[in-house]
Amino acid sequence: MDLEPALRRAELRAFEESSKQPRKFYGARDLSRVFREAGAPACEIRSFAFRRQAPFDSPTRSFPVAYLEDLRGRTPPHLDGPDRARLDVVADPDSPRFAIDDPDALLVCAGHGVAATPRKRTKDHAIVSSHDPSSYGIDRVPISV
To answer: Residue 84 — φ and ψ, nearest 5°?
Structure first.
């Protein structure tokens, strides 16, 4: 889909206009740094992907429908006329060419699982960095993003 690169650029420009920290909308790319700065110096990140193929059941359908609606609201000022027109066709639920209704539609989602080890707190509440998870009384804190 040649519309996708234009949408990614338009989405980033919209984030740059609406936020002083547009990278926060792409947080999964900086998970190691985010967890380290949050007090978990040792973390292991595992990425996974899953796919769904049309026809989509109602729960699966709800995410891409909401995402396309959000893109239609955020990106048009940053798209040229032809790309804006193509977005309107494929992202409009009332359009006969709505992308989610395409019998060949494929939805691929990436996820990240994080096992993080927090910093140890001493009796006086000072934070001490340690990579030995056994010193916390727990092995790992599993977090799914």
So the answer is: -60, -40
